[in-house]
Amino acid sequence: MTDPTMASCPVPAAETERILLGHGSGGRLMAELLHDVVGAELGGDVTAEDAAIVDLGSAEAVVSTDSFVVTPRFFPGGDIGSLAVHGTVNDLAMRGARPVALSLAYIVEEGLPLAELRAVTASVARAAAAAGVRVVTGDTKVVGRGAADGLYVTTTGLGLRPPGAAPSAVRGRPGDAVLLSGPIGLHGTAILSARERLGFEAEIASDSRPLHALVAAMIEVGGERVHALRDPTRGGLASALNELAESSAVGVELDEESIPVPPPVAAACALLGLDPVHVANEGCLVALVAPEAADAVLAAMRARPDGAGAVRIGQATAGHPGRVQMRTLLGSARVVDMLVGEQLPRIC
Amino acid sequence: MTDPTMASCPVPAAETERILLGHGSGGRLMAELLHDVVGAELGGDVTAEDAAIVDLGSAEAVVSTDSFVVTPRFFPGGDIGSLAVHGTVNDLAMRGARPVALSLAYIVEEGLPLAELRAVTASVARAAAAAGVRVVTGDTKVVGRGAADGLYVTTTGLGLRPPGAAPSAVRGRPGDAVLLSGPIGLHGTAILSARERLGFEAEIASDSRPLHALVAAMIEVGGERVHALRDPTRGGLASALNELAESSAVGVELDEESIPVPPPVAAACALLGLDPVHVANEGCLVALVAPEAADAVLAAMRARPDGAGAVRIGQATAGHPGRVQMRTLLGSARVVDMLVGEQLPRIC
Questions:
Q1: Do B216 and B319 reside in the same domain of the chain?
Q2: Which chain B residues are Cβ-neighbours of A56 within 8 angstroms?
Q3: What is the model's pLDDT at position B34?
Q4: Are residues A269 and A327 located together in one domain of the fold?
Q5: Which 3-state string (H, E, C) describes A5-36?
Q6: Residue B341: helix, strand or coil by DSSP?
Q7: Do residues A238 and A319 share a domain?
Q8: Domain containing B122: what range?
Q9: Which of A19-33, B82-96, B124-138, B256-270 has the lowest mean pLDDT?
Q10: DSSP track, A85-141
């Protein structure tokens, strides 16, 4: 409740007893839903991490799942198929895992052109091959007209984590450098521009891409000193850093001027009234890295095309644990909170 | 094209270029969709088996995924949550695996009562605990009103296969006994009765339950002589046996009188114009077992509550490979084909 707009405009209690669009936002309502409903009913904590470690005896396997409901299904820089591969591969990568196998489940609305399902599936295949992961099993359900919006895709990834790689949302420490692998806001603004025909399509394309090789390069240099990784998808950089700050019980201080926002993204956000730190990304990551390893890890990131734009954007602190603050260009400090509800529905 | 009704009533070519409800049926249209569209685009065969083997080095892991779109979400004998656990646990079991971990992905329509999501999640938790499998990761997406029908659930299971357990759809051999673990038709008729308020709800409940312990008991006795297993879900016993016959290149001959159809299921099917062999099940399995092991495996099945109704219903043959024939009560033989299109939409 650090956002002052919350106090003056609370969500009515009666309204919160039904699922709202905001429950899918990646923001606070969603965190509450996962904690209070899903986590509570399952009796465990399935929400603190992007992917789960499964003890397989000698091998340490990692499992992650994501459903994709993005609209439109085809957008500059990708489509629902490539996104479904990248999103799950990246969730595995955030736990330090190399992707090994993917499952693919479709829920299809009656009436979808077969050509479109074929195109999406081809995109899945291309993205999987490029990421070096096999699609090993799948499922298809069809529902009547009006019972879905075209096509929804659920992928589940199985990965293997090499010894020494242990990034986790809970391992951030005061003093850690906060590294960002590239510019923010491209995916969300690309989707919105395509959806609303805003005319930015020529300038903005989604950053959707697999990040496991970048993570492997970071871990090769930094090992266990790569403490925490997160891909800032729904809810954007702000939500990702708030989740890490909360899980690791550290504060995070950011320098606004160090955060790379491409000019077309800034223009689109200004037009739409969005803050770029809340806009979804699908091809960058944020890392908490021990200070003594930060320069070497940053150099390793910059040596790769998928990390060429990597920058240090701040540091973790012992003060204000669980809170993210930003020093603005004007010299003041502001709290960077998670969104309360839904800003951009069906962005992934 | 062994069904004579096909020749006289083909699906118009123009119609087949769009997704039809029948593409989700578990029947021939779906098989063609998976082969021609999904399999072709992925460049591999992700559809021949219920679950995939993933080489994890020393461990042999099994992965399976399924989306659940059943309506109504609550029905006699279960709900979409328990069904989502049982369905995926059973797909793992059909490959001889013990379930280890489940992922859980929700696509939720705006407006769903939270109480309902809570109830479904509680049911997932109960079913998972009863099956001895952990839900280790999950995802929730919310779409706008009208963009889904309440709640869709996708589960992906990770299982481990012990040495010596190698059931596969391709391992059936001429001479194998065809074993069925219990009565057929309960799930599909329970769903239809609940959906259409047919009044059979007091007599018919879904057979939804996990089958991995039954499979373990079968393999303990029969080992590798348990050649092939299939749970006859969408498309029913007919589709399951056609798939096994085709994958193993054997014929299958069934004795109609040996197939257990509970009287209320027979009555419901007569009322609805359905053939019980095409009706979905969620708590029984069909097995091809080497003849010298069949009696011992059948006895092991009957010794358990989940296999108490097990019977031998026929045998695999070298003749008419890929085709399933049934000797009827009248002494004639008829071809038991897969359904062409959709008989019972959204049954699971």
A1: yes
A2: 56, 59, 61, 100, 160
A3: 67
A4: yes
A5: HHHHCCCCCHHHHECCHHHHCCCHHHHHHHHH
A6: coil
A7: yes
A8: 52-160
A9: A19-33
A10: HHHHHHHHHTTTPEEEEEEEEEEEETT-BHHHHHHHHHHHHHHHHHHT-EEEEEEEE
Q: In this structure, what CATH number is given to the domain that contains residue B81?
A: 3.30.1330.10
E strands within chain B?
52-56, 59-68, 74-75, 78-79, 98-109, 134-143, 151-160, 177-180, 226-230, 251-255, 286-289, 311-317, 324-327, 333-335
- Chain A partners of B65 at a C-beta cutoff of 8 Å? 103-105, 137-139, 154, 156
For A138, the closest chain B residue by CA position comes to: B65
For residue A44, pLDDT beyond 80:
no
What is the residue-averaged pLDDT of chain B? 87
Instruction: Tell me the chain B residues in contact with residue A18 when contact means C-beta distances shorter than 8 Å.
Output: 111-114
CB B140 within 8 A of CB A65: no
Say if CB B247 and CB B256 are below 8 A apart.
Answer: no
Minimum distance, in Å, between the CA of residue B67 and any CA atom of chain A: 6
Q: Are A77 and A186 in contact (CB under 8 A)?
A: yes
Are A308 and A199 found together in one domain?
Answer: yes
Would the CB atoms of B105 and A141 count as touching at under 8 Å? no
Per-residue pLDDT of A198-231, as tens digits, reads 888 788 999 999 999 999 999 999 999 999 999 9
Q: And the tokens for B232?
A: 């006859």
Q: Within this chain, do residues A235 and A273 fall inside the same structural domain, yes or no?
A: yes
A134: which 2 tokens? 């096999």
Specify the number of domains making up chain B: 3
- CB-CB under 8 Å, A147 with B41: no
| Final residue in a domain of this structure, among A132, A160, A188 | A160
Q: Specify the CATH number for the domain of residue B328.
A: 3.90.650.10
Coil, strand or helix: which one is B101?
A: strand
Same domain, A127 and A244: no
Portion of chain B with pLDDT greater than 70, in percent:
84
Best mutation target, A35, A67, A344, A348, to test chain B (most B CBs within 10 A):
A67
Cβ-Cβ contacts under 8 Å, B22 against chain A: 142
The answer to whether residue B166 scores a pLDDT higher than 90 is no
Total beta-carbon pairs less than 8 A apart between chain A and chain B: 288
Burial letters for A8-36: b for 16+ Cβ neighbours within 10 Å, e otherwise? eeeeeeeebeebbbbbbbbbbbbbebbee
Does A107 sit within 8 Å of B67, measured CB to CB? Answer: yes
A265's CB contacts (< 8 A; 6+ apart) are: A183, A184, A185, A186, A189, A204, A276, A279
Same domain membership, residue B252 and residue B275: yes
- Band (pLDDT 50/70/90 cuts) for residue B57 is low
| HSE toward the beta carbon, residue A158, CA cutoff 13 A | 33
User: What is the rounded average pLDDT of the residues B205-213?
Assistant: 97
Report which of A305, A322, A291 is spatially closest to residue A226, judged by C-alpha positions.
A291
Question: Is B56 close to A59, i.e. CB distance below 8 A?
Answer: yes
Task: Pick B54's closest partner by Cβ from A101, A125, A143.
Answer: A101
Q: In whole angstroms, what is the distance from residue B105 CA to residue B102 CA?
A: 10
Which of A156, A168, A195, A231 to mutate to probe the B interface, most B CBs <10 Å? A156
pLDDT band at residue A5 under the 50/70/90 scheme: very low
Tell me the C-alpha distance between A85 and A208, whole Å: 10
Q: Which residues pair with B325 in a beta bridge?
A: B253, B335
